[in-house]
């Protein structure tokens, strides 16, 4: 049953991937403008010969349907094309940038989940209390401030005025002589991680607070209270576990979405991640690269969903993956 | 406090504290190296022949042209120290310098011939720049001759800038079969700086080429640091992480003036701003209307408000006197179109654009209010701010201006659908009589010019200019073209703006000795920089 479920799941995931691939291709080709006009507008306008040669080189002179078929075949074969901007294979460019995005994204996601869930559970449990209201209002404020503002604030205070952290980048200038050191990267990552954490905590907080709120009225909580358990014990052992379930899906999807969402933080901290790459690729209309980035995001959402589904039974043994499908 | 909150806060604070001690040594550029910022990381990837290398990229410091354009209206020698053409400009001869590639191999005329053949045989887009060349031959190691398909008096411009043709080493490139996907990791050129090392997306380190054939650099190391955000660049300059930043906005320049150790200087007249009309769309298709509107451009106010004084009003037809010198026709007086709203109003009345219904807006021949559309990409750019000033001025005149937001890649096609556009082009597009062919119908390779301007006499002169090699004759033809432009007014020049640089005067000097050609630090500028 489980194997059948996984097969079916894999088939639907592949279908979703192909639909996304088609939509991405169509939408990006409907987008006005092209690479050459964006990167060197005066040249493209004054010298269509250059534009013609460029189109021939990248196969852009073929019909759209021909380009689409070629693209589908190539993607399935693992060839995602070449970036106009870098002249390198799209997958190689994405892989390089994804690594740097994950360096700041992974710790900030873990931190924001931990903080958001802890504060959210506490706030939801103490629903209506002064603490809950103050935390809620504070989180609304934190969430309302854009991430780039937090980034600028952190850079100004901790980077520029207090000189405790570097202003940006992932390595000091000395890396040119001694190579990139892990401690150096961590020091450079501290502020971007903090900025990303601050800006993503409120989302997790709201969800956890609501999720906890729903469990407070459940009968098992009432039973626990009538047994004379202390409030914190009820929260930890009964309410929290049940409130976790909806969080898993949301957290998994959030992780996939945050990859694109870190563009402002990456720009301000000169952090060469996927967000910055997306922005740059969009600006110059690097279609193969954009297609690759969107496909990578699709893959992440698909895998995050599967991972969330498979992790349900670990959190709640009553859930049996693959049954009643 | 919840123990989970307590634990996670503790871990977070501990992590921050653990990292702080590492930051005690202030991150400053190494003592010897000059550090300059760039806003795009892709400068350090690709290669010199395929990539559309922006000025200031890794390759532009390592490679050289045969010659480069200078600000005095002539050319500086690069890999060629002299050049000449035959009478009808169908044969260009270059005498080459004695130079070495960065790997120690000698540079010869074969490298030049190879570069041409390699570009054309591989059909690289640069081949379009060399499309007038029939073939290249090398009578000896130090001489190279370009045989042209037809008269090519402006060939030096094609070779020298925007983007020009960088010469690559034959012994290195002849083994590279796929230049489109080749990533250069050595950048072996002949230029004054050699590629040393790189941290991807962060730094490029260049070192002085001790065996450079020309003026040797006074600084030993140059580091290019990638900082995409302009505000972050300013902070990096203030904190001493970088020594120079370029293309600073006037507002930031004012705030930096007087900062400790920081100086600001300008490269004058680097961008030429014009208000171009579209001659196909109503009402700008009417010459009387355009002439009236030419009197409604308050250049002084634009220079003050938009450029905070870092610009100079321009009143000639298209060429900028500060860079085009005697190519500018002295008998085409710019003050024909001085700012005079009253006169503009009278001319509009005379042309049939009057406010008949008394609502404050002039109506056209169709009885509708006159609305002028202008395509704008993003708010806050120079063009949009100039348009805002004009909109305010023209409100007084009774002319409505509609700003149409368009994507940057669509901007130029929108020129053909709107009434007017504001464009700031490099001064190099305003410095030679050849630039006047911009107004020729289907000016290049059959596409219409931005203005949809089509004047048979003008087109004939442009054709004549293309086939004329004698400089005096070219100048005369240019004069006649400027007279026609002054009469037809397809464009109204606004101003030439300065490019502002800010640098750490406590570390390096000499920045102002050689103004760059565009808006970033270039090789010539770096050659004049020395320790403070």
From TrEMBL, chain A:
Ranges of residues in domain ABC transmembrane type-1: 98-312
Compartments, as annotated in UniProt: Cell membrane
PROSITE patterns according to UniProt: ABC_TM1
Biological process annotations from GO: transmembrane transport
Coiled coil: none
Entry keyword set: Cell membrane, Membrane, Transmembrane, Transmembrane helix, Transport
Membrane topology: Multi-pass membrane protein
Pfam families given in the database record: BPD_transp_1, BPD_transp_1_N
Keyword Glycoprotein: no
Family statement drawn from the similarity comment of this UniProt entry: Belongs to the binding-protein-dependent transport system permease family.
Protein name (database record): Oligopeptide transport system permease protein appB
Biological source species: Methanothrix harundinacea
UniProtKB/TrEMBL annotation, chain B:
GO cellular component, one term: ATP-binding cassette (ABC) transporter complex
Solute-binding protein family domain ranges (all copies): 77-423
Gene3D superfamilies: Dipeptide-binding Protein, Domain 3, Periplasmic binding protein-like II
Molecular function in Gene Ontology: peptide transmembrane transporter activity
InterPro entries, per the entry: Peptide/Ni-bd, SBP_5, SBP_5_dom
Biological process terms in GO annotation: peptide transport
Domain of life: Archaea
Protein name per Swiss-Prot or TrEMBL: Extracellular solute-binding protein, family 5
Species: Methanothrix harundinacea
High-level lineage: Archaea, Methanobacteriati, Methanobacteriota, Stenosarchaea group, Methanomicrobia
